[in-house]
Amino acid sequence: MRFIEVFHNFLSKNKMNVITKTVSLPDGRTISIETGKLAKQADGSVMLRMNNTMLLATVCGAKDANPGTDFMPLQCDYKEKYSAAGRFPGGFTKREGRASDYEILTSRLVDRALRPLFPSDYHAEVYVNITLFSADGVDMPDALAGFAASAALACSDIPFDGPISEVRVARINGEYVVNPTFAQLEGADMDLMVAATMDNIMMVEGEMNEVPESALLEALKVAHEAIKPMCQLQIDLMKELGTDVKREYCHEVNDEELREQVKKECYDACYAITKQGLEKHARLEAFEAVRENFKEAYAAAHADMAAEELDEKNGLIDKYYHDVEKDAMRRCILDEGIRLDGRQTTDIRPIWCEVSPLPIPHGSSIFTRGETQSLSTATLGTKLDEKMVDDVLDKSYMKFLLHYNFPPFSTGEARASRGVGRREIGHGHLAWRGLKGQIPADFPYTVRVVSDILESNGSSSMATVCAGTLALMDAGVPIAAPVSGIAMGLIKNPGEDKYAVLSDILGDEDHLGDMDFKTTGTLKGLTATQMDIKCDGLSYEILEKALAQAKAGREHILGEMMKTLSEPRADFKPHVPRIEAMEIPKEFIGAVIGPGGKIIQGMQEETGATITIDEEDGVGKIQVCGANKAIIDAAIAKIRAIVAIPEVGEVYDAKVVSIMPYGCFVEFMPGKEGLLHISEIAWKRLESVEEAGLKEGDTISVKLLEIDEKTGKFRLSHKVLEEKPEGWEDRPARRPRREGEGRPARRENKE
Q: At 6, which helix (H) or strand (E)?
């Protein structure tokens, strides 16, 4: 009986309660969410499906916070299996390795949408994993990852103030398309990823082809309307599962009396510091002095308090003081319009720029805005320098690269640099999106921009865009238009109608504010954007005001940049390698390359040029790169000689390559050989080729008499270039055979 009881308990615990819900996109396509079947030991799990693209999202949350944790330890990871597309991973191990840039960027999109919606006092570790298990190469999985992650949270009892969802919106031929396919996206002039709750937009990121601000606002509205049914689906799912009531937690111990004391004794001092307009480090030291003075006074007033208890109180003081500092900064802006550095809400920090500060890089610049500074370089390379992308659903090459570095010294931190993190990849990608549309499609060079942030106090990614533009122009890259960028902030307290939109925000205004809204663009329109929202109730009125204010700021910044360098340099610097491009018929590609690459390698060794060749659009596209024009011209001459078409009647200098009893074979053009028959060497009868004094390696002039239409063989002659001897009689031409007339039958040799 005991066995039967245990067996029944096992069945009841492992019985599947599969729930499937479906939502429709504006064009009629559907997305389904299934839970209760897979990964049931996770706190929440769903399998999301759109056509044949499937993602599994799971979420696990610790029951308690680790001691001393005063932040939200959220980890979002998006992974793609190569098997999802029926492919093997590359590399020696043939298994998935470290996350690709694409996976990291998708993880960041999910993280930025979810993180603000966890309760501020919830500090338990939460791990969100989204895995692509099936991909048809039609639907884009990154647009589905946020929806899957939020649905997994909805299936759990982890506290979360969602749900949210994410969609991609593209503008194609003036029409807005939600979650376009890969093929559809190729024709878009706008590509936006938008995350939102039922009521508010939380996150935006994307690129545009110089579109107006009004188009961006319209895209956000389209996205939000598509997201609302997805959020409602999750609300219905929570009610059905009973997870609309979340777990209880208590991760903080507070002392309300101490909180009030800190506010009472520190607020006025913080407000006064806020109004002084101090530079970054002086301001930090002033705020720190107020806090430490309070701690000393508190310790003196509680001299009988145990050291351990006093340490706990100091931790609470740090926390409460941060809130006081935040409130003082926000009230000073809302009530008096004065920011931490003394600026008004629309003011841009002082800007100075310099180009060519470095002598050897192909292009270089310094862009400084206030206490944020980028030293950027531009390097021009050949096709061999292109970056090969080998993601699950993308095998391609990148001709424009942008890398962003954020060393610790840029903020005055005394710590080691630990390489490139998610932040560097995300900020670099945003700047790359802002600039890439201005590189001409037919520009033959591979271009790499590197931005090293030397100082940071707000919007270093936007400084990268500005410095990158100047470096590109300094290198002589013929960009379509210069690009500038700006980061906008927002101060808006709950329950108040009053708000302030801040231009060119500081790091503290980003940290203590409610919005980080970055836009890049030319004078014609927007090229990229990234927005993170930290408050509820962001209206389209506020967004419109922020966009208009950002446009004015970008134009001001662009004007300052143009004072330094107004257009791309007319020519490259002397030490920049030159590249010339040419096209050849595709049937000559093999002749240029040669067996095992022998011909093209030989040309590179002889000339010192770098030669690349690819077949594109039915033609051979060649790039010749060299240190100077002479090298390039020599290589091009050799290529043209190979692809030249022999012409009947032309005279060529031919090289004897082999001797035969009946004549010699000569190479009269690169890769073109023909037989010089012994009868065509001289006007006299020769018994052997050697009699004419010819040997292998000799050069002899020949005239192309005929090209056989069937075989393509060449008939060459040397004697026709010499004067015919006096009295010479040509042998009469052979009578053509009559139809049906053949050679006489051979006699059989009978013994």
A: helix 2-14
